[in-house]
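R.M. (postdoc): so does anyone remember the format we settled on? I'll just put the structure tokens first.
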């Protein structure tokens, strides 16, 4: 199931309930922002919302974010004199890298699981056809 576009929800709801499009836009925008925050926490690789769709973290974006944080930490660590604030920032970025790396591993496990399921389905179909 693909996610429903925000604009479509706004127009359909405003028309059906005879409410101002701006009011509906505010409510829907808040809802989508909440979903986006849940995805940005990097606890899960996807968030499924009934009758709305599944929102998935993109693998390429995740890899780019990890690289971005790693480069940032490497650049800051090159300085010879680091303040306490800078050191705290380095620790935060390292924790973020660790969390994103764990999410990347979860995504890899999910990919392997899906491939295994598809293989089992294919074996079942081949056996059923013979």
């Amino acid at each position: 199931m693909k996610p429903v576009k925000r604009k479509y929800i706004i127009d359909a709801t405003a028309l059906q309930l005879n409410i101002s499009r701006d009011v509906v836009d505010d409510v829907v925008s808040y809802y989508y922002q909440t979903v986006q925050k849940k995805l940005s926490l990097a606890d899960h690789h996807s968030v499924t919302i009934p009758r709305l769709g599944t929102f998935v973290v993109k693998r390429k974006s995740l890899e780019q974010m990890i690289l971005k944080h790693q480069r940032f930490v490497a650049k800051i660590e090159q300085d010879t004199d680091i303040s306490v604030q800078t050191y705290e920032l380095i620790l935060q970025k390292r924790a973020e890298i660790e969390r994103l790396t764990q999410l990347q591993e979860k995504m890899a496990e999910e990919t392997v699981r899906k491939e295994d399921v598809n293989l089992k389905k294919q074996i079942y179909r081949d056996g059923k056809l013979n």
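R.M.: ...and that's the designed sequence above, right after the tokens. Also worth knowing: The mean pLDDT is 86. Residues 29 and 46 are 19 Å apart (CA to CA).
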